[in-house]
Design brief:
globular, eight-stranded parallel β-barrel, 190 residues, alpha/beta, TIM Barrel, 7 helices, single chain, 33% helix
Length: 190
């Protein structure tokens, strides 16, 4: 495992809603000033040029706080940015046979079962997000796996795993006890 992965913080944040670029910058700054986090920038239904403009803002803020920036976007859009890594969701995971980014960049993948986790490792993922650990309003169709099953599943992979789904900052100790690198939370975004 390289130093970059070993030094990842125990908080992984997905960006949320905002009204304009200024509010985006303010929310990101506030979230990162609280504690160092991995930041996954995800924004759907936005023009590529607007997305890339926001990425530049995120790159600047993340650099200021020495935080890792991952982009939840296509490989093509990712190639136009200077982020630290790419995040793939489980819906596109099986579209790839090889790692979609170089080893100099991090690869993060969302997974919901062991098959997806194994595919992510086959692609050389550096970080896994396993969900839903707890019931979550964002994906009510998925059954929560609970801490015991989470722990059993992550024992079968080698890369760091963040617990996702219904997580709150107060779940960090329990997640680490279960073997997680940390927690992935959208509620850090205020």
């Amino acid at each position: 495992m390289n130093n970059r992965i070993e030094s990842l913080p125990d908080r992984y944040m997905m960006t949320g809603k905002f009204n304009d670029p200024d509010e985006f910058k303010n929310k990101l700054t506030n979230a990162l000033s609280d504690n160092n986090k991995v930041v996954q920038f995800r924004q759907k239904n936005i023009e590529d040029s607007d997305y890339l403009a926001l990425v530049k803002v995120a790159e600047s803020v993340c650099k200021q706080f020495n935080s890792c920036l991952l982009l939840g976007t296509s490989v093509d859009i990712y190639a136009q940015a200077n982020a630290d890594g790419l995040h793939l969701n489980s819906q596109v995971l099986f579209e790839y046979e090889d790692r979609p980014v170089s080893d100099q960049h991090l690869l993060s993948v969302s997974c919901h079962n062991l098959k997806e986790m194994q595919q992510a490792e086959k692609l050389g993922a550096d970080i896994l997000l396993l969900s839903p650990v707890k019931a979550t309003a964002s994906h009510p169709e998925l059954n929560a796996i609970g801490w015991q099953q989470f722990s059993q599943m992550i024992e079968r992979v080698k890369c760091p795993v963040y617990a996702l789904g219904g997580m709150r900052a107060s779940d960090l100790a329990e997640a680490k006890y279960a073997g997680a690198k940390g927690i992935a939370v959208s509620s850090f975004w205020q």
